[in-house]
Amino acid sequence: MMEAVILAAGEGTRMRPLTAARPKVMLPLANSPMLEHLICAVRDAGITSIVLVVGYGEREVREWFGDGARLGVSIRYVVQRRQLGTADALRTTKGLVSERFLMLNGDMIVGAEDLRALAATPAPCMGVHESDHPQDFGVVTVEGERITGLEEKSPQPKSNLINAGVYLFEPEIYERLERVPLSGRGEYELTDALDDYIAEGRLSAYTLSLWMDVGAPWDLLDANATLMDGMEPEILGTVEEGVVVHGKLIVGKDSVVKAGTYIEGDCIIGEGAMIGPHAYIRGSTAIGDRCHIGHSVEIKNSIIFPETKIPHFNYIGDSVIGSYCNFGAGTKVANLRHDHGTIRINGKSTGRRKFGAIIGDHVLFGINCSVNVGSVIGSYSLIGPHSLVEGTLKDRTVIR
């Protein structure tokens, strides 16, 4: 019986402040943790026995997924106490898998059809994907289906194929993992074991048709849109007369979309939320459980975590907003530079012409605040009325 190992132990420091209160794999995409989408893809590929390697925030992962029965799978857990690399993470599962198995990094989007096809190939096999920025990943060279080289984050990549973090292994991989040395980064790297397979001419490549890396906060928006595009409309709450909908709409139970609201593009609304009246929601927007999006509020292509309130005369564009935030009336988040240039955050390019802000949990805004493009606001920050926010604010920053 085919099994799957999913690595879900990391904190996701590049996702700060969103991961201050939750592990990276629990960040919501289309109103479900990204790890849930991956587990469902594994299940839909016909694999129901899953081992999760957990660490940072393990309690939240265990409480959400339990034994996996809710999703139609069987989940066992193993803990990686210290994040010492991918080889170390996989080593923790020794003795828990007895047959050939898929191994997947927990922070990506991949399709069930690809996983099914990969599982049918001879092991060992690596999932690869074409990228327009291969220098940010492990670059793979191939001859036919055989992998001939793997180079980590090369400034001059030899191909546009990258290591997608999806593998098919036989249990004999564990013997190789025992020989992996500590790297210069202080980690046990899976690539060292892969290099052995490459030298032996045994590692083959399978090109994934759907794969998305979710490594940075702005990647959440693209992944969210992709997942929402594949969903079917469903109304479990109340959509009042006078609501206009163009696109797919999902409304959770006990949620109300009030009259005068205009929804343009795909939108998903969680449970117990209140939308409107006269709100303007533009795709692809995911609004979490028990959120309030109020009168004359415009939300565009954003992810709003549960319990956040954006109640009157606000604009949020291309942003990721944490839980338990409250926006004072008239507070707005900009999402476009005057020169239409690519937006950078902490010196790193987002690759996006439109991006608003990354806002942590429990951030409170006074009235008429302005948040500039590419801003990062740490959790529990207090932003006084009429403030201009730019750049990066640490957790618990107070602006009076």
UniProtKB/TrEMBL annotation:
It comes from the Archaea. The keyword Glycoprotein does not apply. Coiled coil: none annotated. It catalyses: alpha-D-glucosamine 1-phosphate + acetyl-CoA = N-acetyl-alpha-D-glucosamine 1-phosphate + CoA + H(+); N-acetyl-alpha-D-glucosamine 1-phosphate + UTP + H(+) = UDP-N-acetyl-alpha-D-glucosamine + diphosphate. GO terms for molecular function: glucosamine-1-phosphate N-acetyltransferase activity; UDP-N-acetylglucosamine diphosphorylase activity. InterPro entries: Bifunctiontional_GlmU_arc-type, GlmU-like, GMPPB_C, NTP_transferase_dom, Nucleotide-diphossugar_trans, Trimer_LpxA-like_sf. GO terms for biological process: UDP-N-acetylglucosamine biosynthetic process. Pathway: Nucleotide-sugar biosynthesis; UDP-N-acetyl-alpha-D-glucosamine biosynthesis; N-acetyl-alpha-D-glucosamine 1-phosphate from alpha-D-glucosamine 6-phosphate (route II): step 2/2; Nucleotide-sugar biosynthesis; UDP-N-acetyl-alpha-D-glucosamine biosynthesis; UDP-N-acetyl-alpha-D-glucosamine from N-acetyl-alpha-D-glucosamine 1-phosphate: step 1/1. Keywords: Acyltransferase, Multifunctional enzyme, Nucleotidyltransferase, Transferase. In the C-terminal section; belongs to the transferase hexapeptide repeat family. This is Bifunctional protein GlmU.
